[in-house]
Amino acid sequence: MRVPFNYLPYQFAETGKYFKAWKKLIKSSEFTLGPFVERFEKSFAKFIGVKHCISTNNGTDALILSLKSLGIKKGDEVITVCNSFYATAGAIVACGAKPIFVDADKRYQINVDKIQRAITKKTKVILPVHWGGASPDMKKILDISRKNNLKVIEDACMGIGAKIKSKSPGTFGKVNAMSMHPLKSLNVMGDGGIVVTNDDKIASWCKKYRNHGMIDRDHIQNWGVNMRLQPLQAVVADIELKKVRKIVKIRNKNANFLDKHLSTLKEVSLPERKKNYTETFALYMARFKKRDQLKSFLIKNGVEVKIHYPIPLHLQKASKNMGYKKGDFPEAENQSKDLLTLPVHQYLNKKQLNYTINTIKKFYK
């Protein structure tokens, strides 16, 4: 049996509705921003409960735009977690600032108890990550930010459709970033990103900066760049947005099934699932003894699995001049040795989920 990790061939198997919507776009010739992009932005802002949505070309651009909107520049420091995807730290560096890493906690989120000691006179922003589609303790992070007069920018790239009690990730910080990469809970046919904020001035600045700083075709207010979401992708995003809640519901059902059966194995350690938190399960991660051997065994038997990620950010070659060394963040380093990501997406059936569990049990016999 095959248990695929990549679900895109199933998601986009029926192409008719996309081509039908694209025909309207093509006929309109609104290929740069325009009404199709604006319609999606309004729909998304309403979906998560914010005043403003500014779409971008990808999630990395959304992070960079968020940071720049708060004036982050060379000499500034931004605190973030060391076990995220490269784009989190890369966006900070792209603004000329320095990432200051903090260890992960047992849930693979930023360890909020380590943030205060990482703050210096140069710190301007705390940038928590909703890693894997789960969420850190945003209340504590906001308390720390207020105490130290710092801004919060959320990397909620994996958090579209999640909930922290009744609020969505991306609605806690001053300005926040989300992604529509193909393997996110809201995805397009390529890349796409989103900046969200309730601040009118920030929204206005972001809209200009992502479009070369233009006020109109003859005037620019400030130097900017092209970070625009393509209308072709906005059309896809608008269609897929209607499915997000159902997708997250199915992924949670599949994750609960995996949790129930994996919790019986002494070789497997699951993260805590916090009460009143809804995860997107963009990544279903757990810690497995003999991880590398298990990975090979599962792939050999048709279960496609991944590692997110085998090397934390502070030990990457790109971080060599930042002064970090092995042992600085022991929790994230230990997790990187035994974390494994299993398929959990909405196109899996019960037979495939059972097969995954039985194959893992077979390995540990």
Could you describe the 3D structure shown?
This protein is an alpha/beta fold and 365 residues long. The protein folds into 2 domains: 8-241, Type I PLP-dependent aspartate aminotransferase-like (Major domain) (Aspartate Aminotransferase, domain 2); 244-364, Aspartate Aminotransferase, domain 1 (Alpha-Beta Complex), CATH 3.90.1150.10. 37% of the residues lie in helices and 14% in strands. The protein has 12 helices and 14 strands. The strands form 5 sheets. It has a 4-stranded parallel beta sheet, with helices on both faces. The longest helix has 19 residues, at 244-262. The chain is globular and about 70 Å long. The mean pLDDT is 97.
Kindly report the average pLDDT value: 97
Helical content band: 25-40%
β-strand amount: 5-15%
Q: Give the total of beta strands.
A: 14
Shape: globular
Q: Give the number of domains.
A: 2
Number of helices: 12
Largest sheet: 4 strands, parallel
**Straight-line N-to-C gap:** 20 Å
User: What is the CATH topology of the largest domain?
Assistant: Aspartate Aminotransferase, domain 2
What integer value in Å does the Rg equal?
Answer: 21 Å
- Poorly predicted regions are none
Q: Tell me which oligomeric state these chains represent.
A: single chain
Order of helices and strands: HHHEHEHEEHEEEEHEEHHEEEHHEH
CATH superfamily of the largest domain: Type I PLP-dependent aspartate aminotransferase-like (Major domain)
Major sheet: arrangement of strands: 3-2-4-5
Level-2 CATH architecture of the largest domain: 3-Layer(aba) Sandwich
Q: What structural class do you assign from the helix and strand content? A: alpha/beta
CATH class of the largest domain: Alpha Beta
